[in-house]
Amino acid sequence: MTIWKPNVTVAAVIERDGKFLLVEEEPEAGSGLFINQPAGHLDPGESIIQGAIRETLEETAYTFVPEFLVGIYHWHSQRIDTTYIRFAFGGRVTHHDPHRTLDTGILQAAWFSPEEVNQMIQRHRSPLVMQCIRDYQAGKRYPLELLTHYES
Question: Using an 8 Å Cβ cutoff, are 21 and 14 in contact?
Fold first, then answer.
């Protein structure tokens, strides 16, 4: 019997001066360049919130302070036959280390207006990129207390 397990991912929806922090990435060599929120897989032993902080730092060199949950998303990629459960957080950045090396596959982190993000929709890593921005713009804010992390 096969046990189905979705991939748990975390993402940061960060807006500053009307622009959103996104990354340009090439997940696998030759796969093409995609646009995404700072996002990635949850690591063993870390809380969901810690995962969002770590991924944002690794992919953008910004220190992220999550302040609320924007949403929890269930998406199945037909292209790679993989299901994702994404926890998207809103918050602010406090520090940028321009000398920090970004994660493998990340070409750059940059700030984009909602119009620019929409114009690049064909390059979005998933439909969740725009959906998270729309939900953020719609004012979706859920308390971080919804999430509980138990240490063994």
Answer: yes
Spatial CA neighbour of 38 closest among 120, 108, 135, 122 = 108
Residue type, 34: F
Is the CB of residue 68 less than 8 Å from the CB of residue 141?
A: yes
Element (H, E) at 138: none
Angle at 118 between CA 117 and CA 123, to 5 degrees: 70
pTM (2 d.p.): 0.94
Token pair 């439909």: residue: 127
Vertex 143, ends 142 and 148: CA angle to 5°?
120
Q: Tokens at residue 49, please?
A: 């919130």
**pLDDT bracket for residue 62 (50, 70, 90):** very high
Instruction: Name 130's Cβ contacts closer than 8 Å, sequence gap at least 6.
Output: 117, 118, 121, 124
Residue 144 near residue 53, CB atoms below 8 Å: no
Question: Residue 127 has which token pair?
Answer: 């439909």
Residue matched to tokens 């340009």: 24
Beta-bridge mates of residue 12: 89
**What secondary structure letter does DSSP report for 79?**
T
Summarised one tens digit per residue, pLDDT across range 108-121 is 999 999 999 999 99
